[in-house]
Amino acid sequence: MDTLEQIKSRLSIEELVGQYVHLKKSGRNFKALCPFHNEKSPSFIISPDKGLAYCFGCRKGGDIFAFIQQIENIDFPEAVRTLGEKTGVETQEQGFGGQRKEEKEKILNIISEAQSFFREQLKKTPAAVRYLEERGYDQKLQAQWEFGFAPDSFHLLTEYLKSKSYSPNDILDAGLASQKNVGDSNIYDRFRNRVTFPIQNTQGHLVAFGGRTLSPDPDAAKYLNSPETRSYHKGDTLYCFHRAKQSIRETDRAIIVEGYFDALTAHSKGFPNTVASLGTALTENQVKLLGRLTKNLYFAFDADTSGQSAASRSIEIAQRLGFNASVIIIPSGKDPDDCLRSSPEEWEKAIQSAKKAIDYEFEKAFSKTDKNTLEGKKTIAEELLPIIRRLPNSIEQEHYLKQLALELETSIKSLVSELNRLKNPFSSPNSPKAPNSQNQQPETSNQNPSFSRSECLLGILLSDPKAIDGLDETFRIDFVQSEPEKTLYKSLLDQYNQSDGKNAQLKSENQEIQARLQLLELYTDENYQEFTAEELQQEAINLCNALREEYKKNRLQTLRQQMAKENKPEYISEYQKLLGDQF
Question: Which of 202, 250, 199, 233 lies closest to 71 in space, CA to CA?
Fold first, then answer.
């Protein structure tokens, strides 16, 4: 058994997919909300029998390797290594990788060495230990959260890493050093006089660092993160995500805060469904990452101007992507870390009384602008109408338009007119229209993924070979346009005849055709599972008749072209037979 088969034998498709989405039993299969696109009705099908997970709406998925590649945004060699780690199958000597793998692994090794260095430096630095203790982190918690310390030196870390045989370029590539000029061999430590926070990727692997300064200099940046590297992409990473995944899935809610301490204190105080946005507004990729686990996002950003601005930008993205966004109002203007340390009960109440994002935006708009002046009315409307437009439901849009009209003492008609006039900067083919629009965009549905009629008929015959009997003499392989499909049909019919109508199975040496066959079987199982044997046979007959008519139409056209060039008797004879349905 080769490496890939070993991994597949130890990890089922439903076990893997179930780590990312909630599965619901559906006959022999499972269904789930697709983790790759926004939908309200489950269209993601997971087949234990076939080892496949696939969405016939957005056409994403496949076996365990294809799924993990797409869900984690990694290449095939990394997918093999990731699933190898999960299953305990050795993959290091199987040739999965190459230069890119070696470069990435070198970066991860350097970062691991740096973490060991930072951990040791923390033990030697009483001021850093005392700072963490004052923030509520005793030495047990310091070890649990793997805090470190970058000494106030330009060269200690780089010299340490050089002693481990890493070159200046290696250290730069890992994001642990800086240089004044490109190509300058004199590099210096990026993190200096800072408490360090290890940043892990979605799988829990250490990929970067954050640092909080201990310098009294008011001009020193309070927080500093690693730059982008081959292993770290800031816009795709959420702090504490790997620790929060299970709790987010169980509570069906993700709490998003701004800072490292906000997230760590939340986890320490019993709120493990918390992640941090690393000090910035969420990116679309980060929101989609959370969307694998929940559609309910609770934002708890600082009450200062930058925090509120970040909250609004994050809410914008979340609503555009179809998430339910709420805002946690922190009591007494505290930040989450302060509130959690002083009173976890108060934090729990704040979560339970969180405001819907739209209500929060209403309160914010009316609190800073005078609604009693004409200019104030216009300013408030210009701020809130694009937000109302983003709401995915027409009834909800109308509700808030009525509320806005009441508050501004104006008519809904004028607001709708203004709503339609305003250009939504986030508009897309799937953006919701204003209320009363006749052109509402339908949700993506589970439709035929471009399977031809002949493929659909093939799927039915594979699902229930006895349906072949109902076709009698009405079906001819000539009706199938594709040569590969003709070969498959011939093989299927030969098997059926040789087994006296008891068996018909297909496998292709061509991997692409075999993958297509598996998806076709999955599609057939899912869409025809409620059909009786008679109904399935009738469907086969209907498809056969449609293929017959399509063949007739195409053949007549070909014969007309041939007769125009050369009026051969055989062309005329075949043409007349086709017209008389004698074929």
Answer: 202
**Helix axis angle, 305-320 relative to 374-390, nearest 10°?**
40
513, exposed or middle or buried, with CB in 10 Å at 0-12, 13-18, 19+? middle
Task: Tell which residue, 315, 323, 239, 247, has the closest CA to residue 282.
Answer: 315
Q: What's phi and psi for 81, nearest 5 deg?
A: -65, -40
Q: List Cβ neighbours of 173 (8 Å cut-off, separation of 6 or more).
A: 103, 106, 107, 110, 229, 230
pLDDT in tens, 144-159: 999 999 999 999 999 9
Could you say which DSSP state residue 202 is in? T
In percent, the amount of the chain with pLDDT more than 70 equals: 87
Cα 404 vs. chain centroid, distance in angstroms? 34
Please give the torsion angle defined by the CA atoms of residues 492, 495, 498 and 500, in that order, rounded to the nearest 10 degrees.
-70
Distance (Å, whole) CA 59 – CA 580: 42
Measured CA to CA, the distance from residue 494 to residue 136 in angstroms comes to 75
Structure confidence by residue, pLDDT tens digits, 414-436: 888 888 776 443 333 333 344 44
Q: What are phi and psi of 578, to 5 degrees?
A: -65, -40
Rounded to whole angstroms, how far apart are CA atoms 287 and 252?
14
Percent of the chain with pLDDT over 90: 29
If 0-12 CB within 10 Å is exposed, 13-18 middle and 19+ buried, where does residue 140 land?
Answer: exposed
User: Cα-flanking dihedrals φ and ψ of residue 159, to 5°?
Assistant: -65, -40
Which tokens in the block code for residue 357?
A: 């994002």
The three-state secondary structure class of 326 is strand
Q: Report the alpha-carbon distance of residue 303 to residue 337 in Å, rounded.
A: 13
Pick from 378, 376, 374: which is nearest to 422 by CA?
378
Other CB atoms within 10 A of residue 237 CB: 23
Cα separation values, 548 from 201, 378, 560, 571, Å: 55, 64, 18, 19
pTM above 0.90, yes or no: no
Q: Residue 470 and residue 534: Cα distance in Å, rounded?
A: 9
CA 323, CA 289: separation in Å to the nearest integer? 12
DSSP state of 406: H
- CA–CA distance, 383 with 447 (Å, rounded to integer): 38
- Round to whole Å and give the CA distance between 549 and 572: 19
CB atoms within 10 A of CB 495: 15
Q: Fill in the DSSP letter of residue 468.
A: G
Query: 191-206 pLDDT, tens per residue?
Result: 999 999 999 988 788 9
**Spatial separation of the C-alpha atoms in residues 398 and 390, rounded to whole Å:** 12
Closest CA to 547 of 459, 476, 472, 448: 476
